[in-house]
Write a structure and sequence with these properties.
The chain has about 500 residues and is an alpha+beta fold. The protein contains 15 helices and 20 strands.
C-alpha cells in the first residue's frame, strides 16, 4: 500500500513537472540540447557552423562582435513563446531583436538565443475605427508604405530599417511628434510573450503597469512584443518640406537660432539641425550645416515662418528651398542628402535590408578614408551594395541595401536653448570633428511639452526642448578609434553638464 502511494505521488509530481514545462501544448522535456528544442519550434534557425552565422549574428550595428548560441526567426507569436520556453529550460538567455539598431549591441549577446521577429510583419487596417493591428517585427519603411496605401500614417522614427517594437520601446520620436506625441502614445494594446513564455495581451486595464513600461522603458527588458494595436492618423496628402544650408563659419549663429526657436514654433512644424562633413571642402575637419523642416501648413505659411524666425538672415549665402510632397515623399526627404520628393523607394527596404558585413566593412573603410564624405554616404542610399530583394512591397521600386554601421552613438537632451558660452564650448569641440561624424538635433516641445513626464515610460516631455544624437564612424584601427572616441566623450564631460542629464534608453 505504501509503495503504491509513493508511485501515485511520483506520477502526480511527473504530471506537475510536465505541466510546468509546457505552455500552449509545447513541452521542452523531450529535448536534451537547446538546438533540438529550437528546431522543434519550426522557427528558422542559424547556428554557429552555418555559413550565414556571421551576418545573422549582427543587426545594423557591427561595432560590437557577438557570438550568440543561435539565431532564430519565428513566424508567429506561438513560436516566439516556444523559443522562450527553450531558453528557460536550457538556461540560454533569450534576446529579442527587431531592427537590430541597438547602439550598444544589446540585440545580440554572447551565448544567447537571439529571437529575431522580422517575419512578424503583418499590417491589418480597420478603416471603420482608424485602428491597425501590426506585427511586432515590421520595420518603419514598409509600415509607412502599407499604412499609406490604406490612407493612414503614424508618428515614428526617420530611418526605414528601424523596427517598430524597438522604437516604441524607447518612445518613438518622429516627424510631427510635436503635434501628435510619440509612437508609444498611439498604442492601444500589445500582445507580449513574457519571461515565462506565456503570451498575454496588455492594455490600459489589463497588466497596465507592463503596458506603461513597454512604451518608452527600454528595449528587450519586459517581454517580446509580437503584435501592436495602433490608433492611426489620416495620411498627410500635402506636406510642406524645406531645407536651408549654412557654411561652417556661421555654425555658432545657426546653432543659437535653431536652439532658441525650434521647440517654441507651432506644433505642426518639426525641424532638425544636422552637422556633417561638407564634401565641397575636402578638408579633414570641415563640415556643413543643414536645417530641415516638416510642416503641415502651406508653403506660404512656411515662408512667413522663415521670415519671422530669421533663418535666412544668419548669413547672406543662406536661401531656403520649400517643396510640397505627399506623405511618403516627405519622409524620404529626411533620408541622406535627398532634398527632393522623388525617393519613396528609400522606404521599401523589406525584411532583410542589410548588406553583408564584409561588404559593409569594405564600404565603411572607403567612407572613413575618403575626403568626399557626402558623396560616399549618398552612394549607400543609391544602391552601392545593390537593392533589397526580400520582403519588398510590390508596386514600389526596391530600396537600396543598407550598409551596416561601424559606429558609436551618444544621446543628450536639453531643457532650453543654448547660452553664448555653451555655444562656444560646442563650437570648440566641432573644430576637431572626426571624419564621418554626424550630429542631428531634433526639436521637441509642442504637445510633448504639455504632457506629464509619467504619461508613459518615455519621460522626455515637459522640460525637454530638443535632443542631439552624436554619431562617429569608426575605422577598426584601435589607435585611430581611440582618438575618435576621445572626441565623442567630450560631449559627456563638457556638454552634458548643461543638459537636463538624460539620454535615450538605447544610447549611452
Amino acid at each position: 500500500m505504501f509503495r503504491l502511494l509513493l508511485n501515485l505521488i511520483g506520477v502526480i509530481l511527473l504530471v506537475i513537472l510536465c505541466v510546468n514545462n509546457m505552455v500552449d501544448g509545447f513541452s521542452t522535456n523531450a529535448y536534451k540540447v537547446v538546438e533540438d528544442c529550437i528546431k522543434a519550434t519550426e522557427a528558422d534557425i542559424v547556428l554557429p557552423n552555418d555559413p550565414l552565422y556571421f551576418d545573422a549574428s549582427a543587426g545594423e550595428r557591427i561595432r560590437i562582435k557577438t557570438e550568440p548560441k543561435a539565431i532564430s526567426y519565428p513566424k508567429n507569436a506561438t513560436q516566439v513563446s516556444w523559443l522562450v520556453q527553450c531558453s528557460i529550460k536550457f538556461n540560454v538567455p533569450p534576446v529579442p531583436r527587431n531592427g537590430g539598431h541597438s547602439s550598444e549591441g544589446y540585440s545580440s549577446v554572447n551565448g544567447s538565443l537571439v529571437i529575431d521577429i522580422s517575419y512578424l510583419d503583418w499590417v491589418n487596417v480597420d478603416k471603420s475605427s482608424s485602428v491597425a493591428v501590426v506585427g511586432g517585427g515590421i520595420r518603419l519603411g514598409p509600415l509607412y508604405i502599407k499604412l499609406d496605401q490604406a490612407g493612414y500614417t503614424i508618428v515614428s522614427g526617420l530611418h526605414p530599417t528601424v523596427g517598430l517594437s524597438g522604437i516604441i520601446a524607447v518612445g518613438g520620436w518622429g516627424l510631427q511628434s510635436r503635434k501628435y506625441g510619440v509612437t508609444g502614445d498611439l498604442v492601444l494594446e500589445a500582445e507580449v510573450v513574457t519571461s515565462d513564455g506565456n503570451l498575454i495581451t496588455v492594455n490600459a486595464t489589463a497588466y497596465d503597469d507592463l503596458f506603461w513600461a513597454l512604451r518608452g522603458g527600454g528595449g528587450g527588458l519586459y517581454g517580446i512584443v509580437t503584435q501592436w494595436k495602433l490608433s492611426l492618423i489620416p495620411a498627410w496628402r500635402n506636406v510642406t518640406v524645406w531645407h536651408i544650408g549654412y557654411p561652417q563659419k556661421v555654425v555658432d549663429k545657426a546653432i543659437a537660432l535653431w536652439s532658441s526657436w525650434s521647440w517654441g514654433e507651432r506644433d505642426d512644424m518639426t525641424t532638425t539641425l544636422t552637422i556633417a562633413h561638407d564634401s565641397l571642402t575636402g578638408s579633414e575637419h570641415d563640415y556643413g550645416i543643414k536645417i530641415r523642416g516638416h510642416f503641415l501648413g502651406s508653403p506660404d505659411e512656411a515662408r512667413n515662418i522663415a521670415d519671422t524666425s530669421g533663418i535666412e538672415s544668419v548669413t547672406p549665402e543662406a536661401c531656403i528651398e520649400i517643396l510640397t510632397c505627399d506623405n511618403l515623399q516627405a519622409r524620404a526627404f529626411f533620408l541622406g542628402d535627398v532634398f527632393s520628393c522623388g525617393r519613396v523607394d528609400l522606404l521599401n527596404i523589406g525584411t532583410k535590408p542589410y548588406a553583408s558585413i564584409n561588404e559593409s566593412l569594405s564600404l565603411a573603410e572607403s567612407f572613413t578614408s575618403s575626403t568626399n564624405i557626402t558623396t560616399t554616404y549618398s552612394a549607400t542610399w543609391n544602391g552601392a551594395a545593390g537593392n533589397v530583394t526580400v520582403g519588398i512591397i510590390q508596386g514600389y521600386n526596391p530600396g537600396p541595401l543598407q550598409i551596416r554601421e561601424l559606429q558609436k552613438t551618444k544621446s543628450i537632451f536639453f531643457s532650453s536653448g543654448f547660452t553664448s558660452d555653451q555655444i562656444k564650448i560646442i563650437v570648440e569641440i566641432l573644430k576637431t570633428l572626426p571624419l564621418g561624424a554626424f550630429l542631428q538635433f531634433e526639436s521637441y516641445g509642442g504637445i510633448l511639452g504639455r504632457q506629464n513626464i509619467d504619461y508613459t515610460a518615455f519621460r522626455h516631455r515637459r522640460n525637454t526642448a530638443f535632443h542631439v544624437q552624436i554619431n562617429v564612424a569608426l575605422t577598426g584601427n584601435a589607435a585611430k578609434d581611440a582618438v575618435i572616441l576621445a572626441w565623442l566623450n567630450r560631449w559627456d564631460t563638457e556638454v552634458r553638464v548643461f543638459s537636463n542629464s538624460y539620454s535615450y534608453a538605447v544610447c549611452l
